[in-house]
């Protein structure tokens, strides 16, 4: 929007256009800087707590590889091999250094590279989460807008009732219902498993759709309800009355005034939903038999494979913070008022 | 305020649902018609007079397991809410009064905790620190506590800048008196809303964990665990998940309704409602800025 206006005015009013571009860049840089300032302490604290988990849990790779009745010498040899007999802070430092270089260590269960294991799973999980997010945005914004524009009619009441049901269904309940109806009952979709994109787009999509739907219900409900409330609030503002009085078209009032000012809460909620999508993947991937990030988290936690769990936690922190950064930048672009700290 | 919540139809409905679930949790184990752990030869049976909801894959009575399993889930979710309340509210109040260092640190800490996907974290911590639902809920409670922190901080900030509090401070009132007399009254409804919400969230987390088989030992019945075993036998008993799923959804719905009802009676009218909602959504994100300006 800023850019098109800039290009439209640029030939006749160059200085004005330049100022707008510079302002937009400054604003983005400011958001970026603030988010990084938040990210660094979050990351340091998060990784420290994550790393301390091993010491607190008292787990050792010797128990996984040798079993319960191992000799103390064998245990000591294995712990020395993994560097666990060094002081805590020196262990933390070398681990942290590796994390910064993208190396998350090796799994205790099979010695495989944790970064690679997580990377494999993440491809599946991010496909599911992205699809869930797209469903959440499309249906959330669609239903929320429809309910707000047709507020206090039967359409609004029906949508609100459906959203209430959506909001109280945890992902695993939705997942079981979807498996029961579409996979077992109607036999339209496979009930479990994953096919890589290379094997064809349509089987790939068919395997992703049900898990994504199971994850998206919560997002759809929250985004739609926040958007409805935000839009109805914006419709009551004086500038909307002013726009009506000036005779602007409904379409223009909606897109220029109501949507831009009313969408802030919905976008904020969308940003907060991302941890829920990652968390929900632990459950949905279990239901749908996907070997993704959430399944990896669950399996390695239950096996007591500490380096893998630490890798999972570090990656999820980074994912969440990155996503929030994107949402903040989008929010700054769409609703300028949110940047003023009102 | 309690009376005004009861004056609303949704408020009565919410309290009714929650009382029903609470009674299930207290009396459920005694009401169970069969031993929830006793297996029999009639496996995967449909509903009958002897077994109201049929039997599972080991021939155990589903209705008994449902009744016996209510306690774990309900206790767990209440624990989440109480832990979050204790950890969150007091720092939220103090962050307004204790100066900038404490304010900055507590805000960063809240940002950290809220950035963690708590289901992943709960799974990790529970599995690594020993298989107990109590530890799991402790962790989840701490991770959810930023909700209470933000709510109590926002309410305190709003009151602390109001003219009547300024007037009270000018006429010599102590901060402790202001908090007890003015701030507390405004924070309380906000906390009640957050409490109802967190019980709902906690309930979903407990059910998810027990669904995955984390935090409870296998033969012990839980609602999530019932769903997990139903999933494996969906071909034989397509309607089996309905009862535990309905109970889980009813509990969460009851919590959400109660939260909405409290919010409705503590806001002045519909308009104020929309605006506070907006302010909260903005405020949640903008607290760092707010702390810089004020």
Per DSSP E runs of 2 or more residues, the count of β-strands of chain A stands at 0
Low-confidence stretches of chain A: 1-11
Helix content of chain A: over 70%
Overall tally of domains of chain B: 1
Reported by name, the CATH topology of chain A is MetI-like fold
Q: Number of helical runs of chain A?
A: 14
What does the main sheet of chain B amount to?
none
Plain-language structure description:
The complex is a heterodimer of chains A (342) and B (294). Chain A is an all-alpha fold. Chain A has a single domain, classed as MetI-like fold (Orthogonal Bundle). Chain A is built from 14 helices and no strands. In chain A, helix 7 (154-167) packs across helix 9 (201-235). Chain A is globular and about 85 Å long. Chain A starts with a helix and ends in an 8-residue tail after the last helix. Chain B is an all-alpha fold and 294 residues long. Chain B has a single domain (2-37, 52-286), classed as MetI-like fold (Orthogonal Bundle). Helices cover 76% and strands 0% of the residues of chain B. In chain B, helix 2 (9-31) runs antiparallel to helix 12, helix 8 runs antiparallel to helix 10 (175-212) and helix 10 runs antiparallel to helix 12 (242-266). Chain B is elongated and about 80 Å long. The two termini of chain B are 31 Å apart. The relative contact order of chain B is 0.15. Chains A and B meet through helix 2, helix 7, helix 8, helix 9 and helix 12 of A and helix 5, helix 6, helix 10, helix 11 and helix 12 of B.
């Amino acid at each position: 929007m800023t850019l098109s206006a800039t290009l439209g005015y640029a030939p006749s009013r160059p200085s004005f256009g330049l100022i707008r571009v510079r302002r937009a860049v400054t604003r983005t840089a400011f958001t970026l800087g603030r988010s990084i300032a938040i990210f660094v302490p979050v990351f340091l604290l998060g990784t420290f707590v994550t790393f301390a988990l091993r010491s607190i849990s008292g787990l050792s790779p010797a128990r996984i590889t040798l079993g319960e009745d191992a000799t103390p010498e064998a245990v000591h040899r294995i712990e020395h091999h993994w560097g666990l007999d060094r002081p805590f802070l020196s262990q933390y430092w070398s681990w942290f250094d590796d994390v910064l270089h993208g190396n998350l260590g090796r799994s205790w269960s099979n010695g495989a590279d944790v970064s690679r294991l997580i990377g494999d799973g993440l491809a599946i999980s991010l496909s599911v989460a992205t699809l869930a997010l797209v469903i959440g945005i499309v249906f959330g914004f669609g239903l929320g807008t429809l309910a707000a524009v047709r507020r206090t009619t039967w359409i609004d009441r029906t949508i609100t009732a459906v959203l209430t049901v959506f909001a109280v269904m945890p992902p695993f309940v939705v997942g079981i219902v979807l498996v029961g109806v579409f996979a077992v009952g109607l036999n339209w979709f496979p009930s479990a498993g994953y096919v890589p994109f290379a094997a064809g787009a349509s089987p790939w999509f068919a395997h992703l759709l049900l898990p994504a739907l199971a994850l998206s219900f919560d997002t759809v409900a929250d985004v739609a309800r926040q958007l409805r409330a935000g839009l109805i609030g914006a419709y009551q503002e004086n500038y909307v009355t002013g726009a009506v009085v000036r005779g602007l078209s409904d379409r223009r009032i909606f897109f220029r005034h109501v949507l831009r000012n009313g969408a802030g809460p919905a976008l904020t909620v969308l940003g907060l939903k991302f941890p829920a999508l990652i968390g929900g993947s632990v459950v949905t991937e279990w239901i749908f038999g996907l070997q993704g990030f959430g399944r990896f988290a669950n399996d390695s936690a239950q096996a007591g494979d500490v380096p893998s769990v630490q890798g999972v936690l570090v990656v999820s922190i980074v994912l969440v913070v990155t996503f929030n950064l994107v949402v903040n930048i989008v929010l700054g672009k769409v609703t300028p008022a949110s940047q003023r700290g009102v | 305020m309690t009376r005004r919540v009861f004056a609303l139809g949704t408020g009565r409905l919410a309290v009714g649902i929650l009382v029903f679930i609470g009674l299930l949790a207290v009396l459920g184990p005694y009401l169970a018609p069969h031993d929830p752990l006793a297996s029999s030869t009639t496996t995967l049976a449909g509903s009958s007079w002897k077994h109201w909801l049929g039997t599972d894959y080991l021939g155990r009575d589903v209705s008994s397991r449902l009744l016996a399993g209510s306690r774990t889930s309900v206790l767990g979710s209440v624990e989440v809410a109480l832990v979050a309340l204790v950890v969150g509210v007091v720092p939220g109040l103090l962050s307004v009064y204790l100066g900038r260092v404490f304010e900055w640190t507590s805000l960063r800490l809240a940002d950290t905790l809220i950035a963690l996907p708590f289901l992943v974290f709960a799974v990790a911590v529970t599995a690594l620190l020993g298989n107990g639902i109590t530890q799991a809920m402790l962790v989840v409670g701490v991770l959810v506590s930023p909700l209470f922190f933000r709510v109590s901080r926002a309410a305190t900030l709003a009151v602390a800048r109001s003219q009547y509090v300024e007037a009270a401070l000018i006429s010599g009132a102590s901060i402790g008196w202001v908090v007890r007399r003015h701030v507390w009254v405004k924070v309380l409804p906000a906390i009640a809303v957050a409490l109802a919400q967190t019980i709902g969230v906690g309930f979903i987390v407990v059910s998810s964990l027990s669904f995955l088989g984390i935090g409870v030992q296998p033969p012990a019945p839980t609602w999530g665990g019932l769903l997990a075993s139903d999933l494996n036998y969906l071909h034989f008993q397509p309607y089996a998940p309905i009862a535990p799923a309905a109970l889980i959804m009813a509990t969460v719905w009851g919590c959400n309704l109660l939260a909405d009802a409290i919010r409705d009676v503590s806001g002045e009218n519909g308009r104020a409602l929309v605006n506070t909602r907006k302010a909260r959504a903005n405020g949640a994100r903008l607290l760092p800025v707010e702390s810089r300006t004020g």
